[in-house]
């Protein structure tokens, strides 16, 4: 305006341009983010989005990029433009596939504006990602190997406990006996059919805890090796049927529960008297169904009879040991005992009857050395004869 009278003035428009200064750091909408994801989330899957704003009025001061500062462990990536955090390509979130096993991740995420050098501003937020277990793994057995059970083990005895593991967090395991993969063999290695001896019915399996109990007496003479097949199933499985199999080998140990048995209940032979020393009369043979089949034989009976004979303790052969006289013993009656080598030992008896055949081995003799006869003078052949006997 002028200073004259009257005052005169004029107006001119003035435009002032305010130059933006990068004086505002990006601000996250939340200082912390939390998300829970399943362990089987495929690589590349988005998890969550972080968001920041910048109050600066112009670009590049208000341009924001995102970056994971720490904690990703090569499992996660972030889109620098959108702030979307995803599973890294090729990464697995399965805790059982990581070393060390990890179920919680804490990421430090930065938001940076477009400032240059020392003028670039940033802010930080925390992203916590927890990994949820998914029941997607099959159980597995700890190898049971081979166990031994004595035959005649009392009914109700616990024999073994099956052990199975499952890497899932909350599996529900159930155990089953598998008759299709079970078999049994005898001492000779022959396959034992269920129709011949039902070895499966000798055991009861608790489906919940895997305990195996003997519920029937085992007989080793019928079956020596039993291979029981088992299945464990996780009935809490979310993806199809999850099972595992194993085989438990049971060796049935022998117990000395059988007496030796002779092939014959009694033996009868004959032998001439005066048979030479060492002549074989007979052989007695016994067998034993138990595992330990070593049998020894012994003579029992009157000493005056057993002294006439010799019995081979290992083979059961009976031979003449001393002179046998029909006139003394027309029959040799005695007993043979067969004893096994078990603990305690068991035995059985067989009666033996040996008929002694008489030989003409004795001269006749007069009962009296001197005999006197009186004969009348009118004796003739029509009169009664006098007889003298000899033995």
TrEMBL record:
GO MF annotation terms: beta-catenin binding; cadherin binding; calcium ion binding
All residue ranges annotated as the Cadherin domain in the record: 1-28, 29-141, 141-262, 263-366
SMART domains cross-referenced by the UniProt entry: CA
Transmembrane segments: none
GO CC, alphabetical: adherens junction; catenin complex
Keyword annotations of the record: Calcium, Cell adhesion, Glycoprotein, Membrane, Repeat, Signal, Transmembrane, Transmembrane helix
InterPro entries noted in UniProt: Cadherin, Cadherin-like_dom, Cadherin-like_sf, Cadherin_CS
Membrane topology label: Single-pass membrane protein; Single-pass type I membrane protein
Keyword flag Transferase: no
Annotated Pfam families: Cadherin
GO BP annotations, alphabetical order: adherens junction organization; calcium-dependent cell-cell adhesion via plasma membrane cell adhesion molecules; cell migration; cell morphogenesis; cell-cell adhesion mediated by cadherin; cell-cell junction assembly; homophilic cell adhesion via plasma membrane adhesion molecules
Signal peptide: none
Compartment(s) of residence: Cell membrane; Membrane
Protein's name according to its UniProt entry: Putative cad88c
């Amino acid at each position: 305006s002028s200073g004259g009278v009257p005052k005169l003035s004029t107006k001119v428009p003035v435009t002032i341009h305010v130059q933006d200064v990068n004086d505002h750091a990006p601000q996250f909408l939340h200082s912390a983010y939390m998300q829970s994801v399943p362990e089987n989330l495929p690589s590349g899957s988005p998890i969550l989005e972080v968001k920041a704003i910048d109050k600066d009025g112009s670009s590049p001061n208000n341009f924001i990029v995102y970056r994971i500062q720490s904690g990703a462990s090569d499992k996660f990536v972030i889109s620098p433009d959108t702030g979307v955090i995803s599973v890294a390509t090729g990464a697995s979130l399965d805790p059982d596939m990581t070393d060390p096993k990890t179920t919680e991740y804490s990421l430090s995420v930065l938001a940076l504006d477009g400032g240059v050098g020392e003028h670039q501003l940033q802010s930080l937020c925390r992203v916590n990602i927890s990994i949820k277990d998914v029941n997607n793994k099959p159980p597995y057995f700890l190898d049971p190997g081979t166990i031994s059970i004595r035959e005649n083990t009392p009914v109700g005895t616990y024999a073994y406990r099956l052990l199975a593991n499952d890497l899932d967090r909350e599996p529900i395991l159930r155990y089953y006996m598998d008759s299709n993969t079970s078999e049994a063999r005898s001492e000779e290695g022959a396959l034992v059919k269920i129709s011949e001896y039902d070895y499966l019915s000798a055991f009861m399996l608790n489906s919940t805890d895997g305990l195996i109990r003997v519920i029937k007496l085992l007989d080793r003479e019928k079956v020596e090796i039993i291979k029981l097949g088992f299945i464990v199933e996780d009935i809490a499985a979310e993806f199809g049927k999850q099972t595992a199999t194993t085989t438990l080998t049971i060796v049935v140990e022998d117990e000395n529960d059988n007496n030796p048995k002779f092939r014959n209940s009694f033996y009868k032979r004959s032998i001439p008297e005066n048979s030479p020393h060492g002549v074989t009369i007979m052989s007695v043979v016994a067998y034993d169904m138990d595992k330990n089949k070593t049998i020894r034989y012994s003579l029992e009976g009157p000493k005056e009879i057993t002294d006439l004979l010799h019995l081979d303790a290992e083979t059961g052969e009976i031979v003449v040991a001393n002179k046998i006289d029909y006139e003394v013993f027309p029959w040799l009656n005695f007993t043979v005992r067969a004893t096994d080598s078990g603990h305690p030992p068991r035995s059985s008896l067989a009666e033996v009857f040996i008929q002694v055949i008489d030989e003409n081995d004795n001269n006749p003799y007069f009962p009296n050395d001197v005999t006197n006869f009186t004969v009348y003078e009118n004796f003739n052949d029509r009169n009664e004869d006098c007889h003298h006997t000899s033995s």
